[in-house]
Specification:
Distance between the termini: 141 Å
Number of helices: 22
CATH superfamily of one domain: DD-peptidase/beta-lactamase superfamily
Structural class: alpha+beta
Largest sheet: 7 strands, mixed
Strand content: 15-25%
CATH class of one domain: Alpha Beta
Number of strands: 23
Helix content: 25-40%
Radius of gyration: 36 Å
Oligomer: single chain
CATH topology of one domain: Beta-lactamase
Shape: elongated
C-alpha cells in the first residue's frame, strides 16, 4: 500500500531514538549507582553506620593524689547519672511519670530541668539526676524499652579518702561554668566544654592541667528511638568512626604526711582554727589543716542545694583556709622579731635588764603588761620566757617602726610566702610611709609599742609564722614553702619535681642574736616559769612562743578581765609557733585558734600533737631518748619544787590574757 514504507521508516527512526533514550537513562542510573556505591560508597556507608550509632564521651580519670609516703589521698570511683535526650522523647508525659517514680521525685521537677536546658540542641542529653543508686540504675536498665530517650551515663567521681581532713589543701572539682569557659580556653588552649569537671580550689585547681587527662569517646548502637542497644567495636569500621581511648591524668605526690594531717585535724576538734607544719631545712609542707572544713567529695558527686546552703550560711566560714587566706595579729609570737631588731641595732644585748612594774607610760598613756603586778627585773631570755610586754615595748621605744618592719620583713612576715596555692593573703607589717598613704596621718610613737608585741596594724598568717620561725630554727634561711613533691607520668617517671628554694638568707650582724632568741624560746616551753611549760608535750624537746591576738581593744577597766568570761566573738585568738628538736631543728608548726583566749592553753596542744606525730614516725630513736630526758628533768623539777618554801612555790603561768 502506498505510504506504508514511509510509515515504517518513520516508526523505525522513532524506535531507534527511543532505544537511545532508554539506553541513556539506564546509563544515567548505572552511573549514579556507580557514583553512590563505588565512588561515594565509603562515605555513605559511614553515614549509614552513624545513623544507628551514637558517639558518647568516655571521661578520662583524673590523676591520683598521694601523700609523701605513698598513701592514697584522692581516688576515682564510678558514678551513674540518669540522663534524658529530648530528641528521642516520644510520649513525654508517660516517660516523665515513669522516670519520676524510679527516681523518687515528681514530674514537675524533671520538667523544670528540661525547660532550664531547652535552649540547647535536642540531641544533647540532659542530666536529670546525678549519682543515682544501684537500685535506680537497675530499674532504668530493666525498663529501657518503656523509657525512650532515657539512659544512664557513667561518670568517674572524685573520692577524697579522709573527707574533711585537708580539704582546703586538696581542693575539689566541679563543673566548669559559662563564665570560666573563655578564660580557661584562652589560658590553656584546651577544648573545654560545658559539662567538663575542673579543679576549683587547692591542689585540684593548681594542678588541674596535669590531673585532668584527656577525654576519649566510643560508639554505641541505638535503635530508632535513641535507646542504647549495645557497644560497637569500631576497629574495622571506616575512618572517622573509631573509638578513642581516654588518657588518664598524671598522678601527684605531695609533701604532706597523712598521719600528721589526721593528728592535726583531731587536735583541732571543737575548735575554729588551722595548723601548718614545715620542714625547717627544705620548706616542705608536712601538714596543713583548717577547721571547720567541708567534704570535697560532695562537689564532684553533684552538690545539693542543702549542703551548699549549710556551708555558705555557717558563721565560721568552713570554705576559708585559715592558714593562707586569713590573717590576724600574731600577738606575742611577734616578740622574737622585735627582739631581733633591737639586738641587731644595738639597743639591747643579753645583759640588758628592764624593770617591769606592770606598765610602761608614754606621755599620758600607760601600756600595760599582761601580768598586772609586773615581772620585776627582766633580761631578754626572761622577758621571752614570761612574755613580758614592758621589756619589748621599752626596746621598741628606742627604735623607729621602720627598723622593726625591716627585720620582720626579712623573715617573710607581712607578705605572701609564695606557696603554689591559689588565694594566699598578704598580711601587713606597717611602716611610716604605709600609714601616710593609707590614712594620710603621721606615725605615732605609741603605735610602735603596740606593734612591737604583735598588735595594732600587724597582720600575719600561720603560713608566714611557720616560715619565719623555721628561719630562726635554721639560722636565717627563708625557704619558699611547697606542697607539690612530684608530678608523675603513667609509667611512674617524673614529669615535674619540686626542689627546695631559698628566697632569702638573712645575714645578721651579731652572731649572738639568734642564740639568745632561741634560748628564750626554749625556756618558754621547758622552764617551769615559761608561758607554755605545762603544754610542752613529751619526747619532742620543743622551743616556741605562745601569743594572744586581740580581737578588739579593751577599755582600761577590762584589760585584766578573764577572757573566757567575755562574749565568744570578743575573745582573743590563741596563737602558738614552735620548732623541734631544739638542738637539731627539723620541723616547725604554727597554730591559730580563733577566740581560743590563750596561745599556750588553746594553740600549743595542736602544735604538740603534730610535732609528736612527726618525731614518732620519722625520728623514733630521738623521740625515745627525749622521753627519757623528759622523765629525768621532770623529776628534778618536782624535787626542787618540794624543797622550796611554800610561799615561793612556782605557780603555773596561764598566759590567758598575755597582751
Amino acid at each position: 500500500m502506498f505510504g506504508e514504507e514511509e510509515l515504517v521508516k518513520i516508526h523505525k527512526e522513532r524506535a531507534t531514538l527511543l532505544s537511545y533514550i532508554v539506553m541513556a537513562a539506564f546509563g544515567l542510573v548505572l552511573s549514579r549507582l556507580w557514583y553512590l556505591q563505588v565512588y561515594k560508597g565509603e562515605i555513605l556507608h559511614n553515614y549509614s553506620i552513624q545513623n544507628r550509632l551514637r558517639k558518647e564521651v568516655v571521661w578520662a580519670p583524673r590523676g591520683h593524689i598521694y601523700s609523701r609516703d605513698d598513701q592514697l589521698l584522692v581516688d576515682n570511683i564510678p558514678r551513674f547519672d540518669a540522663i534524658l535526650t529530648p530528641q528521642f522523647l516520644l510520649d513525654k508525659d508517660d516517660t516523665l511519670k515513669k522516670l519520676a517514680g524510679i527516681l523518687e521525685t515528681d514530674v514537675e521537677s524533671i520538667d523544670a530541668i528540661l525547660k532550664k536546658n531547652s535552649n540547647q540542641a535536642k540531641y544533647r542529653p540532659i542530666i536529670i539526676k546525678k549519682n543515682i543508686t544501684f537500685k535506680e540504675l537497675a530499674q532504668i536498665e530493666s525498663l529501657n524499652a518503656d523509657l525512650p530517650g532515657v539512659s544512664v551515663d557513667t561518670f568517674i567521681s572524685r573520692e577524697y579518702r579522709d573527707k574533711e581532713v585537708g580539704a582546703h589543701l586538696l581542693g575539689y572539682i566541679s563543673e566548669i561554668s559559662q563564665t570560666q569557659l573563655p578564660k580557661l580556653r584562652a589560658r590553656d588552649g584546651a577544648d573545654y566544654r560545658l559539662g567538663d569537671f575542673i579543679g576549683q580550689f587547692g591542689i585540684e585547681e593548681q594542678l588541674d592541667r596535669y590531673l585532668r587527662g584527656e577525654n576519649g569517646h566510643e560508639f554505641v548502637e541505638v535503635d530508632a528511638r535513641g535507646r542504647k542497644k549495645r557497644y560497637i567495636n569500631t576497629d574495622n569500621l571506616f575512618k572517622g568512626i573509631e573509638d578513642e581511648k581516654p588518657l588518664s591524668g598524671k598522678n601527684v605526690k605531695l609533701t604532706i604526711d597523712r598521719d600528721m594531717q589526721l593528728a592535726g585535724y583531731k587536735a583541732l576538734e571543737g575548735r575554729v582554727g588551722g595548723v601548718v607544719a614545715l620542714d625547717v631545712n627544705t620548706g616542705e609542707v608536712l601538714a596543713m589543716v583548717s577547721r571547720p572544713s567541708f567534704d570535697p567529695s560532695q562537689f564532684s558527686r553533684g552538690l545539693t542545694p542543702e549542703y551548699w546552703r549549710s556551708l555558705i550560711t555557717n558563721k565560721d566560714h568552713p570554705l576559708r583556709d585559715r592558714n593562707i587566706q586569713e590573717h590576724f595579729s600574731p600577738g606575742s609570737t611577734f616578740k622574737p622579731f622585735t627582739a631581733i631588731a633591737a639586738f641587731e641595732e644595738g639597743e639591747i644585748d643579753e645583759k640588758t635588764e628592764v624593770f617591769c612594774s606592770g606598765s610602761f607610760k608614754v606621755g599620758r598613756k600607760a601600756y600595760h603588761c599582761w601580768k598586772k603586778g609586773g615581772h620585776g627585773p627582766v633580761n631578754l631570755v626572761k622577758a621571752m620566757r614570761e612574755s613580758c610586754n614592758v621589756y619589748f615595748q621599752r626596746a621598741a621605744f628606742r627604735m623607729d617602726i621602720d627598723v622593726i618592719a625591716k627585720h620582720a620583713k626579712d623573715f617573710g612576715l607581712g607578705s605572701r610566702t609564695g606557696i603554689a596555692l591559689p588565694r594566699e593573703a598578704n598580711g601587713l607589717i606597717p611602716t611610716q610611709d604605709w600609714k601616710r598613704k593609707r590614712y594620710g596621718q603621721e606615725w605615732q610613737p605609741g603605735e610602735t609599742l603596740s606593734c612591737s608585741i604583735g598588735q595594732s596594724y600587724v597582720l600575719t598568717s600561720t603560713m608566714q609564722l611557720a616560715v619565719a620561725f623555721s628561719a630562726i630554727a635554721n639560722n636565717g634561711k627563708i625557704f619558699r614553702p611547697y606542697v607539690i613533691k612530684e608530678v608523675l607520668n603513667a609509667d611512674g617517671t617524673i614529669a615535674k619535681e619540686s626542689k627546695p628554694e631559698v628566697l632569702n638568707e638573712i645575714k645578721l650582724k651579731n652572731s649572738k642574736t639568734l642564740k639568745f632568741i632561741k634560748e628564750g624560746l626554749y625556756q618558754v616551753v621547758n622552764n617551769p616559769k615559761g608561758t607554755a611549760f605545762y603544754r610542752r608535750g613529751e619526747g619532742i624537746q620543743m622551743a616556741g612562743k605562745s601569743g594572744t591576738s586581740q580581737v578588739k581593744s579593751a577599755s582600761a577597766d577590762k584589760i585584766y578581765q578573764k577572757c573566757d568570761s567575755m562574749p565568744y566573738e570578743d575573745r582573743h585568738h590563741g596563737v602558738f609557733v614552735g620548732f623541734a628538736p631544739y638542738d637539731n631543728p627539723k620541723i616547725a608548726a604554727a597554730v591559730i585558734i580563733e577566740h581560743g583566749c590563750g596561745g599556750s592553753s588553746a594553740a600549743a596542744p595542736v602544735a604538740v600533737a603534730v610535732i609528736q606525730e612527726y618525731m614518732k614516725k620519722y625520728e623514733p630513736e630521738e623521740y625515745a631518748q627525749n622521753l627519757e630526758k623528759d622523765k629525768l628533768v621532770r623529776q628534778g623539777w618536782i624535787d626542787s619544787l618540794k624543797k622550796a618554801k611554800e610561799a615561793e612555790v612556782v605557780k603555773p603561768v596561764t598566759e590567758e590574757s598575755e597582751e
